[in-house]
Amino acid sequence: MSMIRSFEGFQPVSLKQEGDYQPSETDQLSTEEGDPGMDPEPRQISRQPSVTESTLYPNPYHRPFVSRKYFATRPGAIETAIEDLKGHIAKTSGETIQGFWLLTEIDHWNNEKERILLVTDKTLLICKYDFIMLSCVQLQRIPLSSVYRICLGEFVFPGMSLDKRQGEGLRIYWGSLEEHSLFSRWNPWSTEVPYATFTEHPMKYTSEKFLEICKLSGFTSKLVPAIQNAHKNSTGSGRGRGLMVLTEPILIETYMGLMSFIGNRNKLGYSLAHGSIGF
């Protein structure tokens, strides 16, 4: 049986020998700072707490604990996605692949959606990839010869909009805006919108690898010459139309934005671990 006893009667005993007196740090400070001839008075010495900078993650990339929530950053996930898309291209078209990028698409209702973009010599592919199940859910193919305008700039919203975003993006136009019906414009699930808007993925700064594949400037530098070459080699009705690359604000025409407010704040458009929710 364990027993707890009281030791209140014991007093601390000094082990110093006579003549071995050593002034404490407080005594030394009092002696050095005091004036000769003055009676020493007890002084309060203020001490600044030491500050030690953390060196757990000496690399320039930040928030490693946040990056683990995104399934795209988990070991082997992005590599598996790229191999899946390479296999799909080899089986279906055999086109030459220019590169892969992981970006965020912003739809016409300001909803963020995680996307893999693949540029070949003839096509832009926008892939909705499930990084949890490691499978391609949706693949949109856009012929590069049909792209006639690219806009780079800051996001702007109508003056009465309640849900605005900061930052810059890129918008790619194809088809005809005149064919963009009123129904598809106000339908949040419409897939008939003749343009796509992208910005950088939030995990851009988690590692050197993601810095390359999430960089919007890197995607643009590959996309523009690929479109120009596709226009030169085109034999269809779009031949000679050319490509315009403009720097201008990108309008996102939303007003209330309740759905995007909830979805974007909770990152519902990403393959993301949303916490340990269970019963």
TrEMBL record:
InterPro entries: hSac2, Inositol_phosphatase, TPRG1-like. Residues 45-55 have a biased composition (Polar residues). Belongs to the TPRG1 family. GO terms for cellular component: cytoplasm. Residues 1-55 are annotated as: Disordered. Residues 72-244 form the HSac2 domain. This is Tumor protein p63-regulated gene 1 protein isoform X2. Pfam families: hSac2 (PF12456). The gene is TPRG1.
